Amino acid sequence: MGRKVLILTEVKDGKLRQVSLEALSVAQQIADGEEIIAALFGDDSTEILSEISLYGAHKLYTSTEASLSVYTTDAYTQALVQLIQEVGAEVVLMGHTGVGKDLAPRASARLGAGLVTDCTGVESVDGNVIFTRPIYAGKAFQKKSFKKGILFATLRANNFAVKESPVRTEIVSFQPTIKDLRTIVKEVVRKAVGGVDLSEAKVVVSGGRGVKGAEGFQTLQALADVLGGAVGASRGACDAEYCDYSMQIGQTGKVVTPDLYIACGISGAIQHVAGMSNSKVIVAINKDPEAPIFQLADYGIVGDLFEVVPLLTEECKKVLSEAAVSS
Questions:
Q1: Boundaries of each Electron transfer flavoprotein alpha/beta-subunit N-terminal domain copy (predicted)?
Q2: Are 24 and 56 in contact (CB under 8 A)?
Q3: Residues 6+ apart with CB under 8 A from 250
Q4: Cβ atoms within 10 A of the Cβ of 226, count?
Q5: Is residue 55 a contact partner of residue 64, using CB atoms and an 8 Å limit?
Q6: Contact at 8 Å (CB) between 141 and 148?
Q7: Are the beta carbons of 237 and 209 closer than 8 angstroms?
């Protein structure tokens, strides 16, 4: 028996976030023939609306309410709760992003509903939806389900296959009643970082104290550029001011789950491992053969990263170039 699912989709840099596409694909499994509803606040570009219809959303609720043009906890909570009540959603999914981590607890608490965060797996068994999430810094996993009520869940990016299922999507204008706002955003100043979003990157090249300085990250960036990936860092590298804290991966930084994680000059401290241990393939490059990162890595290279990484970069360029010519 399926359930009516609502997905809060997010747009970044004019494009639907990858984790929103993954959430739409998970919704197809949970809905099992029931209605799938997408919500998009603050953006109604034709390109975005067309893309959502490719992933099985039967209805798309959009709102151009001025207070929803920029995310604030108050306005989005009020709008999402009103929409859930209006459409009668039984399951609410969103990405485990900054917005999802802030909004899901607030909205679920307001509705007296249960919430599972940072999910890496979802399955339907005998009509029950079972969510899997990592615990103890990724060393164990727990499964959670709900006996009754609305189910809220946030999904970790890069853990669910994106499945196209084109349908005819009905666009519905949604105008919630927003009042008593305690926060008003007057101006948004974005930090110009460019490149691939670290939290959703398929390839991450990460550096630790072994990078030795800010210039060392340029070596890693060259490899990341060739592979279409993003550059991350350990807390040690950030604390040493080799790079910005926005690149930090770990228990107190970002959690990533790329297809390929290349750890360069990273020892493998538990704080860092908590943020990348669920990567599908891990490659470690370190001069110290006893570094703990090698116990976690699928492939290990004992050597100086300043010799190994440029060689890898050139070899990857060569292989990708040959592949492009043959295709």
A1: 5-193
A2: yes
A3: 234, 235, 271, 272, 273, 274, 275, 276
A4: 20
A5: no
A6: no
A7: yes
